[in-house]
Amino acid sequence: MTAETTQLSWRDWLLSDRPQSRRQASLGRAYVTWRQFSANRLAVLGLLIIIVLILVAAFADVIAPYPPSIGDLTNAYLKPPGTGDYLLGTDNLGRDILSRLIYGSRWTLYIVVLVAIISAPLGLFIGMIAGYAGGWTDTVLMRITDIFLAFPKLVLALAFAGALGPGIENAIIAIAITSWPPYARLARAETMTVRHSDYIAAVQLMGASPMRIVFRHIMPLCISSVIVRVTLDMAGVILTAAGLGFLGLGAQPPLPEWGAMIATGFKYYLDQWWVAAMPGIAILIVSLGFNLLGDGLRDALDPKESGQ
Known about the structure:
The chain is an all-alpha fold and about 300 residues long. It has 13 helices and no strands.
């Protein structure tokens, strides 16, 4: 009974209509967001998939039964799944596919995180500046954005990756260059919604500079929408990186990147299907996880959807 009373008191404290401090208000908003997010079971499933991916990548050295780049051509050439100790089979160089998938999760997270770190702040900055400044600044920045949006993302990434040369770092740069325009459009729309509001007018009357208004007062209003869009775009980033790897413009052998693994197994797909199918299934599961997580975050963070 005491535990129930304590739980109720904490809940009442978090859901109070009159928070006594900024910390209480922040914790209350976080608690409400989590309740709305956890009510979506598919979103929780997506979150669990991403957590498992992170844990697998963090403990790959412990989990993987074999080294990812060392094979056994004599005894383990193209072994089917379930043969001996090879749960998911082996590839054309006698390497354990499960171990390569486990280590490949690190490269997947590496690509996803770096693309998000590069493209999201860039798009957010450009969109906020264009939306707040207006005039010729808005026109120039949005016409540049339209040029990037006029081309399919994969085609544009192929062009940049081809110009920069093969390699996973160049592939990340190519994907990031092609990923920022949607974030700029979204941030611009959010900025134009609030730039003439009474709240911003009051800040201007207090003497705040335009840069302070953009970064201290407008950016927090745009971040939640950008986070949702980034999460939803991660599946596309993974698929684009896999496509570049498949075409030889991404990760280079012997790196266990999932797209490169599919390219290696493509020539064996009729008889030794598992070589290409297993990394394909891994890409499918992780992409599904990001999409489900993004849908849940959209419902939880969007006030129009959540009814806050």
